[in-house]
Amino acid sequence: MTSKLENLALRREALLLKIQAQRHVLTLQGRQFKQSMETADIALRVAGKVSAVIRQRPVLGFALAATIVAIKPQRVITLVRSALTGWQIWQNFAPILRRLQQQEQEKN
Fold this sequence. Notes:
96% helix; elongated
């Protein structure tokens, strides 16, 4: 009887640990998803602003299209990816820098 209770207790502990690990993974995935959505939101806002400027000044739209054709689309995509990666890095480090800056101000 005791071994059965011990086995059940061990199984319960294992299940609780598994649940805790799954919650942690879900939390991490949620953070990654949030960052991706923030990046997509930024890209959408930038695209909206660019399209508004192009609608106001069609010549700029033609210039942008000519530039993309001249630079080659793959290079533009690479440039946009690099810019978005830089933005994501900034989004990760900005809160840390703000916190450090606030701590510095509190010391002075």
